[in-house]
Write a structure and sequence with these properties.
The chain has 587 residues and is α+β, with helices and mostly antiparallel strands. Helices cover 57% and strands 12% of the residues. It is built from 21 helices and eleven strands. Strands 3, 4, 5, 6, 7, 10 and 11 form a seven-stranded mixed beta sheet that branches. A hairpin with a 2-residue loop joins strand 1 and strand 2. Helix 11 packs across helix 18 and helix 16 runs antiparallel to helix 18. The longest helix has 37 residues. The protein starts with 7 loop residues before the first helix and ends with a helix. Bound molecules: flavin-adenine dinucleotide (FAD). Flavin-adenine dinucleotide binds next to strand 3, strand 5 and helix 14.
């Protein structure tokens, strides 16, 4: 039960029939890309994920990364797999050809990322950091650092990390204390302790670049005083080769519920040499290049787990005989109505989020390379709106769908052999890291909705409305268009009330943020279901599955819109009924 089957057919269906990738490939930037190339790349990527990465997953769970004499040793097979990954050119899939990458759209990279993450989440964490850091350095780096680091990151010769968290600065990034003192040669000396740093040390690459947020002397308080530094494990010689060991040290690895193959490190910076990227005080802004890619990919992680768990549950349910008339042979549990309810729920939640992360990736591609400035601006607004929704909804779906898969497998699901309980443990952190989901909801409401007269919401809702108008009269879609129309209406009125509350009752708006985000996510999933079902015209199991699951979504999931709207508007009255001390007086 441990094999991983990448969702290649579904991804190709989405890229060719649902997501407007033709628009992307018409751009001069992607003149070298066509549907055949994308199919070939993803086919090869699926093979790599299934054959090379899939077998690492459960072994890495049993033998996680270890700290030996101050050095991190990765789980068996990781270093070899990383070499194959690098030789295949996978680290630079969406990086520009001028930088040694493959020059493919992020949209294609995102589809491949799901296969990597679905095969082995811990390995997925390793490749994500380096790719995101290369994008950051391309955008904000300069001089020798950029020249030396980017091609090596793209080639997979070097690795990278993201170093934000400190004991007193988790969600509250503005409280970072790590100090960066300027040195006469223009570099800096960094001192402080970063915690929970994924892959801060390992044996897969000879050089590791820690991308560190720190505070220069006299810097303003809060996030405005943060600058970004590259702190290499080995000092970088003039020709780019690694030199003397820098003063960084992994003091401890955390013991975790899951993701054992991904070392989570306490990293001491003890007078380490660092190089500033971007201006003083512009650190968080620069870091957002990396964080936005990582947030998208955490959403992809959620879909990857949900997809892998769904595939296992479907296979098991077809094979497990149980129940039926006692005089006859037992029937497969897939025939029971309640098991079907669970399996349909899993598909109904997973598949629209796959389309949604591809839509968000497409928006990011178009925001950079779109044909006109209007197209770029509109795509940028849509991407900003969709990113927190993808991150939060998909990370929750990953864990909840994995938990449903465990239910379908029964006792077998709870045992290691079933291959599902690891998904539950590994995926739980996705709602916590890269901005806890509560913080994503506040970002959506207070920043994305609260600024610029709600333009980001307006772009999103206009897209949903236009597709409803274009596709909604198809009788084959059953109740879906009507229910989506109702849900969009609820979202419209809820949005208007929250916008009002942001002006005069902010606490009420904040209290509703999490449910508002879920409501947006539900409408967004209805939107992608509408488009998937309308495109599924073929007489194939894939197309029949899409149309039937879209109707299930309309019957079983879309009605939740009314409850979500009500909760989003309930305000802070009842949650603030007790003061903090009385609330905490419990048991
Ligand atoms: C396995 C793992 C890997 C990680 N990898 C990295 C890494 O590579 N690099 C890195 O820098 N960090 C990493 N992290 C840290 C991660 O990003 C943080 O855990 C996360 O940002 C949350 O911070 P916190 O744990 O301090 O929680 P807190 O900030 O203490 O939050 C706890 C709870 O309070 C809520 N909360 C906090 N503030 C507010 C507020 N203002 N309003 C409303 N609610 C609020 C949160 O939503 C959350 O539910 C990793 C963590 C883990 C567990």
């Amino acid at each position: 039960m441990s094999a991983y089957t990448p969702p290649l057919d579904d991804v190709v269906f989405l890229l060719e029939e649902v997501i407007d990738t033709a628009r992307l490939m018409a751009l001069p930037r992607y003149a070298h890309v066509d549907a055949a190339l994308v199919r070939a790349v993803l086919g090869e990527g699926a093979r790599f994920a299934a054959d090379v990465l899939g077998p690492l997953n459960s072994a890495a769970d049993r033998q996680g990364a270890r700290l030996v004499d101050g050095n991190v040793e990765l789980s068996p097979g990781f270093t070899h797999a990383w070499r194959l990954f690098a030789e295949g050119g996978w680290p630079g899939l969406d990086l520009p050809q001028e930088a040694g990458g493959q020059g493919l759209p992020l949209t294609v990279q995102a589809a491949f990322a799901e296969m990597v993450q679905g095969a082995c989440l811990a390995f997925g964490m390793l490749q994500l950091n380096g790719r995101a850091a290369a994008h950051l350095l391309l955008e904000h780096g300069h001089g020798g650092l950029r020249e030396h680091a980017v091609p090596r990151l793209v080639a997979g010769d070097w690795a990278a990390t993201i170093c934000i968290s400190e004991p007193q600065a988790g969600s509250d990034v503005g409280r970072i204390r790590t100090r960066a003192e300027p040195r006469p040669d223009g570099s800096y000396t960094l001192s402080g302790t970063k915690i929970w740093i994924s892959f801060a040390d390992h044996d897969a690459a000879p050089q590791i670049l820690q991308m560190v947020l720190a505070r220069t002397p006299e810097a303003a308080p809060g996030t405005a005083g943060l600058s970004l530094f590259v702190v290499p494990k080995y000092l970088i010689e003039a020709d780019g080769r690694p030199g003397a060991r820098n003063h960084t040290r992994v003091a401890r690895l955390e013991h975790k519920m899951g993701l054992h193959g991904s070392p989570t490190c306490v990293l001491d910076l003890d007078g380490a040499v660092g190089y500033r990227v971007g201006g003083e005080g512009a650190g968080l802004k620069c870091m957002f290049t990396m964080m936005n890619l990582m947030r998208l990919e955490v959403g992809i992680q959620g879909v990857a787990v949900a997809g892998a768990a769904t595939a296992k549950a479907l296979r098991y349910a077809r094979e497990r005989p149980q129940g039926g008339p006692s005089a006859q042979a037992p029937i497969a549990i897939i025939e029971h109505a309640d098991v079907r309810r669970m399996l349909c729920t899993m598909r109904a939640r997973t598949e629209p989020l796959r389309a949604l992360y591809l839509e968000a990736a497409l928006a990011l591609d178009l925001a950079r390379y779109g044909a006109t400035s209007e197209a770029r601006i509109e795509a940028g607004l849509l991407a900003e709106w969709l990113l927190p929704v993808c991150k939060a909804c998909a990370s929750e779906a990953g864990f909840e769908v994995a938990s449903l898969a465990m239910q379908v497998l029964g006792g077998q699901g709870y045992t290691h052999e079933g291959g599902v309980e690891q998904y539950v443990r590994d995926s739980r952190v996705q709602a916590i890291y890269e901005g806890a989901n509560g913080i994503q909801a506040l970002d959506l409401v207070t920043r994305k909705l609260g600024r610029d007269q709600g333009r980001r919401y307006a772009v999103f809702s206009a897209r949903v409305r236009a597709d409803l108008q274009r596709l909604g009269s198809d009788p084959g879609l059953g109740a879906l268009p009507g229910r989506l129309h109702e849900a969009l209406g609820l979202l419209e009125s809820c949005t208007a009330v929250l916008q009002d509350r942001l002006q005069c009752a902010r606490r009420d708006a904040e209290a509703g943020a999490a449910h508002y985000l879920q409501l947006v996510g539900l409408v967004a999933c209805g939107w992608t279901w509408l488009r998937m079902a309308a495109a599924a015209t073929a007489d194939s199991p894939l197309a029949r599955g899409k149309r039937a699951t879209a109707r299930f979504f309309a019957d079983y999931l879309l009605p939740e819109a009314a409850a979500l709207e009500r909760k989003a508007l309930a305000g802070a009255g009842t949650i603030d009924a007790l003061d903090g001390e009385t609330l905490a007086t419990y048991g």
